[in-house]
Design brief:
The chain has 2 helices and 6 strands; from the N terminus they run βαβαββββ. With about 110 residues, it is of the alpha+beta class. It has one domain. It is globular. It starts with a strand and ends in a 9-residue tail after the last strand.
Length: about 110
């Protein structure tokens, strides 16, 4: 069974998304985590992909998500985030991998953190 995934991206005045099939909802900003949690409640699917506006999916990660849609087997999926600092990719110290919960079934009992 293929699942439908709703994507949530908290943004302020981002225009590029208008060229895609997106829905924009306005909500008074009360804090980053509060805004994400509010947005999750507005989605049409319980399967959520949540990204920050400065995050992008690699081609490999996009392919992995498409495979997950075909065979969802876990409550949630963590992504290894690779940080670019001053034009350089940081692949060492505590900066990589920076594991973040970014894909999950919202019917499970999770609290979204950054």
């Amino acid at each position: 069974m293929q699942v439908q995934i709703s994507a949530v991206i908290i943004t302020y005045n981002e225009e590029i998304c208008r060229s895609y099939n997106t829905v924009f909802l306005k909500h008074k900003f009360t804090g980053h985590i509060e805004q994400k949690n509010w947005a999750i409640l507005q989605t049409s699917s319980p399967y959520i992909l949540s990204l920050d506006t400065d995050e992008a999916l690699s081609y490999e990660l996009k392919d992995s998500i498409l495979k997950i849609k075909e065979d969802w087997t876990h409550d949630s999926y963590y992504f290894n985030r690779l940080t670019n600092y001053c034009g350089k990719w940081i692949r060492h110290t505590g900066w990589y991998p920076s594991r973040k919960l970014r894909l999950w079934d919202s019917r499970m009992d999770f609290t979204v953190l950054s």
